[in-house]
């Protein structure tokens, strides 16, 4: 039942992503979450390290779009200065926002990865569409909103079940 919450890859942060390995999989585009994936949920702007990472992705030919459940004001204030397209109020794991991201990227599902910090939104949404899913640890869990905390409770239940089935090991995260 919880197998759809399993990501293809687990990392500590986006900075641990092997960009060349991702490209070798045929991935050309990245749908990324914003809050607690790229920056903390209360961090309004990209850090210099994040800007450098995004520049590396662009230099390797990756297209990027932010898909966030947060509102337009939050997402636009972050994304506009970086020139990154975005889909706010995404209602992940709903397919609609992911499909809009494909239109923006001009790519197919098999050419796209999704990066996020939540199994219930980012990973489930990506897996439902056959994307390469990458789960990162949340940057600032203490800043999470109520709905994210509810999702985290469900994730803990799912993780217990996945561990019992031998499908989740803590040492897998890099």
TrEMBL record:
<dbReference type="InterPro" id="IPR006549">
    <property type="entry name" value="HAD-SF_hydro_IIIA"/>
</dbReference>
<dbReference type="InterPro" id="IPR010021">
    <property type="entry name" value="PGPP1/Gep4"/>
</dbReference>
<dbReference type="InterPro" id="IPR036412">
    <property type="entry name" value="HAD-like_sf"/>
</dbReference>
<dbReference type="InterPro" id="IPR023214">
    <property type="entry name" value="HAD_sf"/>
</dbReference>
<dbReference type="Pfam" id="PF00702">
    <property type="entry name" value="Hydrolase"/>
</dbReference>
<protein>
    <submittedName>
        <fullName>YqeG family HAD IIIA-type phosphatase</fullName>
    </submittedName>
</protein>
């Amino acid at each position: 039942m919880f197998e759809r919450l399993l990501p293809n890859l687990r990392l500590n942060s986006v900075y641990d992503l092997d960009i060349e390995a991702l490209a070798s999989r045929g991935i050309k585009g990245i749908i990324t979450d914003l809050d607690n994936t790229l920056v903390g949920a209360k961090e309004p702007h990209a850090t210099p390290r994040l800007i450098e990472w995004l520049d590396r992705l662009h230099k390797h030919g990756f297209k990027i779009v932010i898909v966030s459940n947060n509102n337009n004001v939050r997402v636009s204030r972050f994304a506009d200065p970086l020139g990154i397209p975005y889909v706010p109020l995404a209602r992940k794991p709903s397919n609609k926002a992911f499909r809009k991201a494909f239109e923006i990227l001009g790519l197919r599902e098999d050419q796209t990865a999704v990066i996020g910090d939540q199994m219930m939104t980012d990973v489930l949404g990506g897996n439902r569409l056959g994307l390469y899913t990458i789960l990162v640890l949340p940057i600032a869990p203490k800043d999470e909103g109520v709905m994210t905390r509810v999702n985290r409770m469900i994730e803990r239940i799912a993780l217990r079940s996945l561990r019992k089935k031998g499908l989740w090991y803590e040492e897998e995260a890099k």
